[in-house]
Design a protein that fits this description.
This protein is an all-alpha fold. It is 36% helix and 0% strand. The chain has a domain of 55 residues. The longest helix is centred in the first third of the chain and has 11 residues.
Amino acid sequence: MSGARIDWPGLVRAGLHRLGLAPGAFWALTPVELKIMLGADQAAAPLTRARLAELAAAFPDAMKGADDGGTGKPDRAAGDAGGAAGGLGPDGDGL
């Protein structure tokens, strides 16, 4: 046992009041079932194209100017080889 204390009063309140379970139904649940019913086991939503576009707009790639030794193209992270596996077309731009 990890030594973590279980908040029984909080769990009973959540089951009986928040979920509206009868006491017998609450005590018949397994901890995993209660966790799922309370929504604690929900995974994060997958990243969609729209969300990726929002993030790209909010955090654009840094552009290096000629005085920085750059080419005016987005500065790639060190070790990023690009290419087809990196999601880039043959000219180095996005597909």
